[in-house]
Task: inverse folding
């Protein structure tokens, strides 16, 4: 699960992929496709504790710590949200807590998905990124405390 | 028949649209299709102008100032009160209290009349299709007073089960508070029958008119309801202003809501004498500008013709319902015989949030989710709906755009 490509490199890859699309439709078609292909989250992890609270859709986010790296797995009942999560997992999963905590995630803006950071979409990227960084912080603190 | 044709002829939607500047804009490169007027309506130029005119022409604090600007501002503010009185056919201007909106109107009644009159064991009746704003204030009151909240159930079409309502009525019933038109389903409730039955049981009646006031002719004297609350912003007026109508004899005996300026006659440290109606319930500097501009919205509705608007909206709803039903996998939620303003629906296997995002990419604004009616969504066993709502400026072409947008959503998301 060790992600050998750096966070910045993966972000660059995604930005290049999105550069091929010239319409909103194409971008969303791609995100929807990512959503449909996201590895399903085992039912045992679809707990209330793993819910990222939001107004309209439900997101479950689980995190595991293996060999100093954080592995993220997630699911949602809404497919576009799932596609967005899929990208975040691709970028952040398999990295160390420090790498995750320092990630700037500028790709979100570069691919034109900043609307999903808006407060109204409370189940958008913003709360997911926050939750992922929270997990990274928890794992980091746990390790420091031995 | 001739009268109907004349109304149809007189109603020129393109002319109406030209009066709403925001309708000229594009969203994501596409012309805006605004189908979210049940959340808030767009504003005609006359309302925008009225706001600008107020601030640039005669802004002043009202009622107490002895100078020309204060007099002009007071006159304009009070002119809206008269316009509202006429609009809902109240018998007296003292029965018109300005609030921030429907929610504040309901809370005002809960905190004043409710705290004065509700005792342990008393019952308050609401319905299964209430907005959270007409649930929570009564829940809080019931908890505080040890009173009981009862709920009128609905059928699968989204209509109140009136027989069940009659069974709920008893000498313990102190208040019945129901929504006139459901924001989530569009159901028009028989509030006159409800009011009469509640009065026979000795209960006071509050109507949530947030959605109805824009679509239906409101006559509070004919309805005979004791309280009626609505918001200006759903009536082509500004946000942050609303109205609570209350029968004079109730408003006179109710305790005050908030203390402060304007609502007093005389203050000493020993005792305060409260002002007369309606000022007794309007503590502090009110939302002068928005109330003043609200008159322009009411004039706009009157000039356009409420009946003509209602007919136009009814036609749009009828057309939308027929077109939406042709979409495979789509189910209309709320199929009451009497409906106004909204078409709510779900589409098999599709999440409402996904639908909203795909529609937004095509410039189409709808509302999705539980519409602040979670108990109602539970009743239908769903987490939310997609809701298209219609106003004076909407067109058949916009409904066609919605339908093709939904076809696209289904294609992309399935």
Result:
């Amino acid at each position: 699960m060790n992600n050998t490509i750096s966070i910045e490199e993966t972000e660059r890859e995604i930005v290049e992929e999105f550069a091929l699309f010239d319409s909103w439709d194409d971008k969303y078609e791609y995100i929807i496709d990512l959503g449909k292909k996201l590895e399903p989250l085992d039912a045992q992890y679809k707990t209330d504790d793993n819910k990222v609270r939001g107004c309209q859709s439900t997101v479950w986010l689980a995190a595991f710590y293996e060999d100093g790296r954080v592995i993220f797995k997630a699911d949602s009942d809404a497919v576009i949200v799932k596609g967005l999560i899929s990208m975040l997992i691709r970028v952040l999963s398999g990295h160390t807590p420090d790498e995750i905590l320092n990630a700037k995630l500028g790709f979100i803006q570069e691919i034109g998905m900043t609307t999903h950071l808006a407060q109204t979409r409370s189940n958008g990227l913003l709360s997911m990124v926050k939750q992922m960084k929270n997990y990274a912080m928890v794992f980091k603190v746990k390790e420091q405390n031995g | 028949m001739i009268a109907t044709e004349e109304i149809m002829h007189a109603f020129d939607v393109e002319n109406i649209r030209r009066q709403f500047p925001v309708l000229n804009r594009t969203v994501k490169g596409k012309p805006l299709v605004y189908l979210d007027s049940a959340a808030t309506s767009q504003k005609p130029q006359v309302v925008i102008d009225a706001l600008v005119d107020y601030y640039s022409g005669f802004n002043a604090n009202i009622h107490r100032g002895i100078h020309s600007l204060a007099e002009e501002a007071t006159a304009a503010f009070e002119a809206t009160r008269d316009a509202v009185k006429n609009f809902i056919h109240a018998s007296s201007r003292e029965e018109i209290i300005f609030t921030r909106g429907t929610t504040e109107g309901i809370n005002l009644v809960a905190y004043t009349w409710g705290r004065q009159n509700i005792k342990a064991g008393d019952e308050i009746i609401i319905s299964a299709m209430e907005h959270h704003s007409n649930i929570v204030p009564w829940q809080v009151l019931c908890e505080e007073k040890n009173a009981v909240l009862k709920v009128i159930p609905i059928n699968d079409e989204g209509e109140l089960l009136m027989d069940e309502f009659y069974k709920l009525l008893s000498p313990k019933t102190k208040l019945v508070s129901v929504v006139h038109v459901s924001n989530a389903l569009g159901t028009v409730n028989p509030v006159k029958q409800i009011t009469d039955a509640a009065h026979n049981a000795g209960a006071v009646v509050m109507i949530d008119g947030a959605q109805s006031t824009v679509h239906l002719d409101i006559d509070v004297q004919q309805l005979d309801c004791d309280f009626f609350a609505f918001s200006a912003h759903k009536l082509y007026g500004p946000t942050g202003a609303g109205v609570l109508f209350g029968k004079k004899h109730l408003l006179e005996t109710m305790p005050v809501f908030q203390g402060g300026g304007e609502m007093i006659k005389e203050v000493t440290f020993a005792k305060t004498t409260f002002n007369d109606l309606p000022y007794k319930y309007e503590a502090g500097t009110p939302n002068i500008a928005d109330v003043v501009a609200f008159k322009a919205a009411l004039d706009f509705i009157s000039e356009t013709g409420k009946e003509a608007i209602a007919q136009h909206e009814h036609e749009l709803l009828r057309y939308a319902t027929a077109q939406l039903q042709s979409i495979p996998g789509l189910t209309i939620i709320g199929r009451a015989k009497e409906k106004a303003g909204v078409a709510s629906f779900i589409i098999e296997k599709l999440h409402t949030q996904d639908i909203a995002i795909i529609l937004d990419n095509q410039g189409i604004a709808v509302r999705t989710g539980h519409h602040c009616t979670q108990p109602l969504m539970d009743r239908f066993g769903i987490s939310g709906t997609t809701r298209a709502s219609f106003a004076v400026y909407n067109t058949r072409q916009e409904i066609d755009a919605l339908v093709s947008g939904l076809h696209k959503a289904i294609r992309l998301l399935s």
